[in-house]
Amino acid sequence: MIERARKPKVIIIGGPTATGKTSFAISLAKELNGEIVNADSMQVYRDMDIGTAKPTKEDRSAVPHYMLDVVYPDEPFNAALYRSMALPRIEEIASRGKVPIVVGGTGLYIKTLRGGLFSCPEADPELRARLIREYETLGPMELYKRLKQIDPDIANRIHPNDKVRVTRALEIYELTKKRPSQLAKGHGFRERPFYDILFCLHLDRGVLYERINQRCVKMIEDGLVEETRSLLDRGYSPRLKPMQAIGYRHMVRYLLGQCELETALKELQRDTRRYAKRQFTWFKAEKEFAWVKPGEYKTVLKRVEKFLSSKTM
């Protein structure tokens, strides 16, 4: 009789930006003989280090990290590609007797990793081109309002400036006449390729917002302007999806002379706070996450040790 391969046991740490997920995960990894798999949709891009708050060289030498620097900024990447690359890595880590620890604030990547993707139609080039033209001529808010009327659940999880996701959601609706959130609920996301225990790090809002403000200042001090200039000098278009992300789009505006650096910083701080709020909303809706504060490390460690020692079918 052939014995079925056992599913790996995986620790997942999510939560809003600037809550200390990286340092928390590194502490767990050192304690548990673990290795870290990134679940941040921006940290997959090479040469985008400061604006993505990527783990430092010291962090990465202390504990092995995976799913960082896997594509260049002008290469396509999405949740499906992430899952196809991250799952084999998790299995490989577990096969060596190590503990896979998935860490990141991109809820969609975590959800897709755990449960797969719902079936949706392939892109329609003509429809996509029309929606992008409308987005660029009418402005982001016009199409975002349209999406909010059609599917408020999805709209609440997408920033109006996220051209790719806003237009894709509208495209799916026009092709299927069904709300993207309705299609997602029909899927159920039940394809569990591993056993897991999930934690969401959080901080009191005032504390978190102050940390965000300080982090944004430090990013500029650490060279975010120069990093963005280097990307532009190498020919990466400001229209690329990663160049439209928080941090980079603000520095692009400054470098193009569209605003002062002080204004860019204030907008960066504001948009990062708003992003953290959307992340909070997303994780709050995912009932399997246990909400913990960074100071509750010992409690989390005990729960994880119990999970790892438990028997599973």
Number of strands: 6
CATH class of the largest domain: Alpha Beta
**Spans with pLDDT under 50 lasting ≥5 residues?**
none
Topology as a string of helices (H) and strands (E): EHEHEHEHHHHHHEHHHHEH
Please count the helical segments.
14
**Relevant CATH superfamily of the largest domain:** P-loop containing nucleotide triphosphate hydrolases
- CATH topology description of the largest domain: Rossmann fold
Mean pLDDT: 93
What percent strand? 5-15%
Radius of gyration: 20 Å
**Amino- and carboxy-terminal Cα gap:** 17 Å
- Output the structural class: alpha/beta
Query: How would you describe the shape?
Result: globular
Name given to the CATH architecture of the largest domain: 3-Layer(aba) Sandwich
Taking strands numbered 1, 2, ... along the chain, how are they ordered across the largest sheet?
3-2-4-1-5-6
| Tally of distinct domains | 2
Helical amount? 40-55%
Short description:
54% of the residues lie in helices and 9% in strands. The chain is an alpha/beta fold and 313 residues long.
Structure explained in plain terms:
This protein has 313 residues and is of the alpha/beta class. The protein has 2 domains: 9-116 and 189-309, Rossmann fold; 125-186, Histone, subunit A, CATH 1.10.20. Helices cover 54% and strands 9% of the residues. It contains 14 helices and 6 strands. It has a 6-stranded parallel β-sheet with strand order 3-2-4-1-5-6, sandwiched between helices. Helix 2 links the parallel strand 2 (34-38) and strand 3. Helix 3 (79-95) crosses helix 4 (107-115), helix 5 crosses helix 6 (140-150) and helix 12 packs antiparallel against helix 13 (261-285). The longest helix is centred in the last third of the chain and has 25 residues, at 261-285. It is globular and about 55 Å long. It starts with 8 loop residues before the first strand and ends with a helix. The model has no long low-confidence stretch (mean pLDDT 93).
